[in-house]
Amino acid sequence: TAPSAEPPPPGDTAAVINPAQAAAVTTAPPLTVAPPLPKGATQGSGTAGRAGIDPARRAKPDPTKSAPPAAVEPVPAPAEPPEELPAPAPPVLAPITFQGIKVLVRQGGKLREREAVMTLTGSDLAVQSDGKDIVSVPFASIAQAFYSRSKEPKWKGPDGKEQSVSVDLGRMSFFRGERNWLIVTTSAEPIFVRFEGAQMRTALASFEERTGVKVQR
User: Fold this and answer.
1) Cα dihedral sign, 150-151-153-154
2) Per-residue model confidence (pLDDT) at position 34
3) CA-based R_g, the chain, Å
4) Which of 17, 113, 126, 183 could staple 136 via S-S, CB 3.0–4.6 A?
């Protein structure tokens, strides 16, 4: 048998290095000593040395150059007002007629009753007798209207005083009692219309509705 290898002497252990371990050993680079920093400077990034720059050397704004104009936002145009729609046309009212009434007509110097028909349209008041127009006035020309329960028409004038007219009722006028009168005043002579009791309430309500004139009682 071959003789066994003798272990190395104790003093030479550090000199024997395994070749596999020798490859892992690296040599540290030599240390480099940095030069001393200027007085007042601090160590850091590349901008550290700016702390030592004299403020007087910093750039100053050029007074000859004007500042850039400020941005002006456009003013919005005012909103257009909504278009106004035309007012609706008033409804067309069918004419309403009252037959079997009486109207006072001047004959000579007297007022006498005549059979008549009164019609209220959407804009006019018309009274006819025997197919002929006795009077026709637009509603706009009516000044006032009065109801009188009396033998002869009575109403108040512009001064507030009571007025009346004398009616020629014929020979039997003494026996005639109170009647229902509608007196319509205009710039001309008043219009005197007499209704029977059954027609009076409907006639006054229709007159006020069509003409817009309140009947004073």
Assistant:
1) negative
2) 56
3) 61
4) 126
Contact 144, 213 (CB under 8 A): yes
Just give the CATH number of 96-216: 2.30.29.30
**Interior/surface letters 178-193, b for 16+ CB within 10 angstroms, e for the rest:** ebbbbbbbeeeebbbb
Inter-residue contact 128 to 122 (CB < 8 Å): no
Tokens 């006019």 correspond to: 124
Give the pair of three-digit tokens for residue 14: 């550090």
pLDDT of amino acid 80: 82
pLDDT along the chain (217 residues), means of 10: 49 47 50 56 49 57 69 80 80 87 90 94 94 93 95 91 87 75 94 90 94 94
**C-beta of residue 204 within 8 angstroms of C-beta of residue 147:** yes
Q: How far apart are CA 5 and CA 117, in angstroms?
A: 161
pLDDT attached to residue 209: 93
Nearest-angstrom CA–CA distance, 96 and 79: 49
